[in-house]
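FW: tagging you since you asked about this chain on Friday. Here's the raw sequence from the shared folder, copied in full. Didn't touch anything.
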Amino acid sequence: MLHTAYIGIGSNLGSPAENCLKAIEHLNAHSDLTLLTQSSLYQSEPFGLPDQDWFVNAAIQLTTGLSPEDLLQACLSIEQSMGRTRNEKWGPRIIDLDILFYDDLILKQDGLEIPHPGIPERSFVLEPMNEIAPDLIHPSLKISVQELLDKIPSPQEIKRISSEG
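HL: got it, structure written out here
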């Protein structure tokens, strides 16, 4: 059975835009993943730890036969292959791949929460998601991505820098 998943992508080390595009290539090259839609690239101010370089972010929609846990492992493997190290929460990173949504699944287990818990307050997630899936309903909040973006409590500064998708 195929599932639809959305992955958030971010980078602020090295060449962030190139890193995001390379991560998308890795995801698309994975034998169990099929890329359906890709957002533009966005530049956004850092979230949580402001004293660092701005991020480049994107979102993709894909189909997969992988379970949520196996999809997480695929994302972690791509991060590791690209040189990701986890030093500090919200700190600088060469690449970050987050499962945002997986069908209409609501899942909370150690190391994996779907939908991603940070979605409602993160412009850098909602802007690219709104570009590719504005009508997608958040399964636990029961409102659309567009409505979440409109209601964001304190939006970060974000701007579209390319329309690669």
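FW: Residues 43 and 56 are 4 Å apart (CA to CA).
HL: agreed, and The helical segments are 16-29, 68-81, 123-132, 145-150.
FW: great, closing this out.
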